[in-house]
Specification:
The structure is a homodimer.
Chain A lengths: L12 E6 L4 H13 L4 E5 L7 H7 L3 H5 L2 E3 L2 H5 L4 E5 L10 E2 L1 H13 L4 E5 L8 H5 L3 E3 L12 H14 L17 H17 L8 H14 L4 H17 L17
Parallel strand pairs in A: 1-2, 1-6, 2-3, 4-6, 4-7, 5-7
Helix pairs in contact in A: 1-2, 1-7, 8-9, 8-10
């Protein structure tokens, strides 16, 4: 399976950092964004920018810093935006709807896909977003977490929010899966029948409840999600046991010689 | 609404860091865990521990470091565990099932709720998990992200995975919502009827298609998710406009005097 592409519409979603104090956080935020396919960073009145520290923490995401837009006000960062989400973890006496990332994200993705500009707005490390900044946004988003210790730092919040966004793009990790060869129910049943015959042949069933036993094993093997190669290995093993017992040749017609025997 | 409690069963889910190199990452991971209600940290052969750097980066989560368990092998960290998830971002030629956090998490929560011990296993910062380490786990979990730049650092991966876990606990952020007073459809309709009368009274409808206009406004107000207080403000405004036009007294029987008039 080929490596999937990051969807193009993610370029319509920007991250806005309002008045960030620490250059390191700008770098870490850039890195977090890029891991989740976002590239457009807006910085409102950054205390220090550009900086070596930001570049260092951005690691392979220095390109995000190099193309970042520095603006003097939040309004400037949001001028062409239709939906601006204020990330906040405080109770606010505002009538702007409050939701969690998982609820908000599908709408953001849909709007970005239509070509609308969407912003995720994060406040200063110490003070968060001011009331004036929040009022310029039309959504409040709160990341759920431990009510007694909610201490997500800035870059962590960017990471969680962008992860949530990315998880709704439909880009999956299937390209990392090895080429599986799942066995069918029929193949599993054939293998269990072979096991049943083997247990009989080698005398394991004597004075035991063979029916109950094989039923349990059948359930176990059906649950295990077997691959075809594993079935081959198991059947090779059974065949060998049958041979040692002087049985089995021709007794299970669906068994073929294979390399494991 | 009261602040919710972190569910007790989260204590059955541990984070295992295998051979972490950088003390700072141990501290950041502890902080990430605690923000999502996890407290049990296992460290397999940490290069440096305890350390001042870890304590500094743990911020308010030093208690997680103080109660951390240091073990010499991954096996020791997993001895009493039923489900161990190996966090990995590489393609592995293994038949262990690979899934994303959102797929895996409901099962982990269900098992922890039943009292089983669950582990999230993270590898070394540079090398990830070794093949021997992955083989001791019965799940592979990959965080989805940019296929061309997948550079989540250790603490970020812990943050994303524990966020995903927490999001399935049912602990929500409703306690942060202001006490809303959503208007009913009937209240919205009453307000729009009042607006309709007002527009008539002040002569705004002359030579305009009043029916089409009020229909559009009605749709807009129904969409806006109005609160009761907002309806009071609007009706106060309409009443004042009606008075200026020498109209309105008694003409809209459902309007009552209120503080805004």
């Amino acid at each position: 399976m080929n490596k999937p592409q990051v969807p193009d519409f993610l370029k319509n979603i920007r991250v806005v950092l309002a008045r960030p104090n620490h250059p390191g956080n700008i770098g870490s935020a850039a890195r977090a964004m890029k891991t989740m396919g976002l590239t457009r960073l807006y910085l409102v009145e950054p205390k220090v920018f550009p900086s070596e520290e930001a570049d260092t923490l951005a690691s392979g995401a220095v390109d995000v810093l190099q193309t970042a837009t520095v603006v003097p006000t939040l309004a400037a960062a949001l001028a062409d935006v239709t939906v601006a989400c204020a990330l906040t973890s405080r109770r606010r006496e505002l009538t702007t709807p409050l939701s969690i990332p998982r609820e908000t994200t599908p709408e953001l993705i849909a709007r970005a896909r239509e070509g609308e500009q969407v912003a995720l707005v994060f406040g200063n490390e110490t003070f968060g977003l001011s009331i004036e900044e929040v009022e310029q946004c039309n959504r409040l988003v709160t990341i759920p977490g431990n009510p007694d210790y909610f201490s997500l730092n800035l870059a962590m919040a960017v990471q969680v929010m962008t992860y949530e966004l990315f998880s709704h793009t439909g880009v999956n990790v299937d390209y990392l899966k090895p080429d599986g060869n799942s066995a069918t129910q029929g193949e599993v049943d054939g293998m269990v029948d072979h096991l049943d015959a083997t247990l009989e042949d080698i005398g394991y069933y004597r004075r035991r409840n063979s029916e109950r036993m094989i039923r349990r094993l059948r359930t176990m093997f059906h649950r295990a999600g077997l691959l075809r190669e594993e079935i081959d290995i198991l059947r090779g093993f059974y065949k060998q046991a049958q041979r040692l017992a002087g049985k089995g040749q021709g007794s299970t017609p669906d068994v073929e010689d294979d390399s494991t025997s």
